[in-house]
Batch of 2 targets.
Target 1
Amino acid sequence: MSEPLIALLSELPAARLDPARAARIRTRCRARLARLAPDAPASSAKTVHLWQPAITVLGVAYLIAAFVQAFSVSSKF
Amino acid sequence: MDRDTELGLVERLRQGDTDAFDAAYEAFSPRLFTFLLRLSRRRDVAEDLLEETWLRFVKHARRLRPDTRLGPWLFTVARHLHVSFNRSRVLEDSAAESLMGLWPFAVERASPFESVAANELERRIERALAAMPLASREVLLLVGVAGLDHSDAADVLGVTPEALRQRLHRARAVLSRALDRDGTAPAPSAGGITPCPSR
């Protein structure tokens, strides 16, 4: 029993897929992979690049406005 | 395929390299199809499940972990698809066999491999494999035919290596008994009809 049986199984012939069907599967999968491949990380990086300066500008503007407000209040006293 | 080649392939697949897909397809498709065909015993089903396996593979290609082992990944998906197919068709082997037992005659259906087996021993093995319960058949197909090592086969089946060893031991015993029986009893002709044993 045991290992000789496994050896017998390993010598069984492999199945052959119909070549036309095999080619269809390959083409379909290649097309899907190519469609999924384009620049998903690049677009998210671009979004980060756009938002970072915008947040910085708004933050600086807020700080300036806060200082101006503080000076105007303190100059009255 | 050695491990370094496999890791390189995975890296290229993660980048969406279609040539890497071709390499993986060439390396694994024949074994996957053989596994699915012997598991389902139907060429049309095996072809559909093979296509779905590869479609799932490319869908997840960019999210593969860098250390992914392609063989176990693909065989796991293929097996899950076959399990889902069986559930959807309510055609688990045990259910089918118990239903067949209600009829006065049992139909011996030849496996797709049996008619093309090169010699009598191969025919007997194919016949025995086709008649085995699904759980026994899949472990023998993974280890014996697809050549997965025990730890990979355990991963595919979702069991511990120890449970796999036990399952494999039982499956080998079942196959061995079936071969002994088939070797001593006259073989039924493929596609023929044999009466059920009287109870």
Target 2
Amino acid sequence: MNRHAAFWVLLLGLAWVGSTLIPHGNPGGFDLTSFGRLPVLADGRIKPMDTIARTALLMLQGHQRLAAPDGRAVAPEEWLLDVFFRPDTADTDRIFRIDNPDVLSLFGLGAGDSAGQVRFSFVQLQSGLAELERQAELAAPVEAATRTAFQRAVVELREHVDYYSRLKYGLQTPDGPAAGRSGFEAMEKFSPLRAVPPSAASVRPDDWRSVGQSQLASLSTGATDPTVVFYAALGRAWRAAQPGDFNALVAAERAGLAERFASAARRCSFEAYFNQVEPFYTSLVLYVAAFLLAVISWLKWPVELGRAAFRLMALAFLLATAGIIARMWLEGRPPVTNLYSSALFIGWGAVGLCLVLERIGRNGVASSAGSLIGFGTLVIAHNLSLSGDTLEMMRAVLDSNFWLSTHVVTVTTGYASTFLAGFLAIIYILRGVLTRTLDRATADSLAHMVYGIVCFATLFSFVGTVLGGIWADQSWGRFWGWDPKENGALIIVLWNAVILHCRWGGLVKQRGLMCLAVFGNVVTAWSWFGTNMLGIGLHSYGFTNAAFEGLLAFVALQLAIIGLAAIPRARWRSAAAKI
Amino acid sequence: MAPDRPHPLLCFTSLRLTVALLLLSIVLVFAATLDQVHLGVWGVQEKYFRSLFVFANVPGTTFLFPVFPGGYLLGGALIVNLVAAHFYRFRLSWKKSGIWLTHIGLILLLVGEGLSGILQEDNQMRIDVGQTRRYSESFRDTELAVIEITHPDYDQVVSIPSALLTEGASIQHPGLPFIVKPAAYYPNASLQMRMQVPNAPPSLATPGEGDDIVATPIPVTTKPDESNWPTGYVELVGPEGSLGIVLVSTLLQQPEAFAYQGRTWLLSLRAKRDYLPFSITLEKFTHDIYPGTDIPRDFASTIRLRSDDGRDDREVRIFMNNPLRFAGRAFYQAGYANNDRTTVLQVVRNPSWRIPYLSCALILLGLVLQFGLHLFGFFRRRLAAPARVPAHAPAPP
């Protein structure tokens, strides 16, 4: 193997990362990028059109990429412009993801109607919308936790159709630009967007208005807001396929906004760029590559591949760091504010610890564990992002940067390190039982790592839990209330204490320590996700929920691995190494 | 003590016992978390944590038997185990200082949680804008207030905790010329006018004392967004015999009045009150949401606090994460009602609230010391050892 293999792998990785950083061009002549950076107020914050488009597509169809009926790739901004200004065209885009066959039958559709796909267009759904509404009304009074799979699917699809329909009222009425009072009233009522910035020097987010509101006001004053005029002209240029006019309009509008709302405009431009770069997706791919290299390194070319894996993981880590910092800047908040960002941060923390461990151990073990956790948490984060904007506003009780940055960050670091100990233990068990690669030195090094990480995890999960108690005392008047999330955190602390006391008391040796650490994964997964599902999985027996099933599968897998470790040591394939 | 047979009391110092107790605690906490779906958070605390044993019914009967150690038992056993282990095994040394601190903090934490369970009182205050209140009300406990309104200048109140009503024993009080005798008590009930339910069973109440209302017992709810409405009938007994049976209910806006010997009383079943040595006036309540959403951004109550001794008369703003601490109580912004015209404050009185802070500081210090010493030792050994060859590196030629 080439001595410089690691260097070339890193260079390849860097080249690819570099290529994702280059802003996309505008193939059709329309300056979609600039349109995507226009600010608009939605869900309580000012964000770029690009985020509106991508969040909507993620929510409706599960990913950001869209193909037109003829197979051509459609940019998110292009789709959004169609929704605003050419709704007839947008209605034929297959954006509604429907997995439930019973829901499909509401519309007289089968899987065959979408050429093997699970996505359908508004036109395809139109005939069954009344029935969808009726079924959703029937399901609405049922408590969310006890709904059947069909009921949940129906309610969710109704929400999606509703959001799509409201989006069509975003800048104009769907049936054309010439709308009177009733049209404006409909726009005010339905539009989820406040696209018209306050006129004078006001910069308060509360003063942004929807196009409908602005137009209703103009009926009495007689003066139409320039932003409304701009969007009307933009719609004409888009419908008439006039890229020149379109680009000139967008450029002028952005110049005006940059003057009056410099900070918001800067943030929006950056956010749109951030959306396009998708740093977390890039680092997800890099983690997969690093994991494969690290695993292969145990079999062949340990030094070169081990180094290559380490460098790729470090690159992915840097990218994820940049992504997290970018989100913090956009939000003006500490790194963890919701479940989505907790997934990002748990992965980030675990990988960071692994980078340190790998520098000490240099045997590819921490690289593989780190890249696996990095990959897993990013997949979880992607799935969490399907429910809407991930930079959501904080409810009043959470609106405390001090506690978010102390309690939430520490407790999440505790989760990350408990997971890390568990994954290192899995590597120990799998390598020991299934391969001949676990020699004495590697085994001892792994045991040291697991023990050290468990100590670290005890410290952080305890401190994090306690800080949570103090926060609760400050905001609700009780230090400890035995609610599910608190109990979950307490169980993690107790479990780590069990591991440490078992080891100190000599109740377990290396193998036992590993089994206990693997069970730590179960405990942490319960605390992280299981407690949130308590309303769901336990209330209603026999119904399936993808996340709940995922959790069960994860727990089963951990138990299977513990079972594997129970095989007598003499039968392990690495038995010769006398571990 | 024979060297080959350890003293039986030594089992209290065993590390195995520690591990066993920790494992049992995990099971207890986990079971309590699952059971919250059925019992609600308060029910779970009583059943699992503030008890020596967790009891379960023999299936099909009401006979209870203990199935698992409860929070007090496990916590107490952990304290005994910790203290015993320290006295027997541990030596006071720099190396062990971290463990010492951690465990002292832990004992304090357990004691503090036990004390909170016993001492903490949770009340609430609902105040309309412009209104002044001098008392807080319990979330769960109720009392029967027997209010004499004969005098035009003042009322005289005798309050009887509902716990006494559930026991069913007669209550005699020097302030009352009659005995109060519980006739029936329902922890939760619904009320309807008798006209609307023609087939209802006859009322326990004597005519004119609430017999036009039908009280139907309903199951106790544990859902966080629902309330229980205790209701009952009390019989008033004078020396000459029964004076009448009166309906009392937390649902009744206008309590039933009762006249005897030319004096008049109101019988009101109401949330248990805690009178304060000061008054609170709600001057303003604000409730902000993020534009275009219904996500709350902030709630805040601006109140005027006036103490009876005249030393305090000031304006205070109570909002999320910023409670008012005064006279041994803490006031938190808990909610709002009535189209933002009413604020709901949570009032907590817990003399032991500082203990967790102290114990946490001790444990934090202890853990940092303990693991820090470990880490320090690890790096010192690493630096002292000759550079190690990577585990997989090929042997040098």
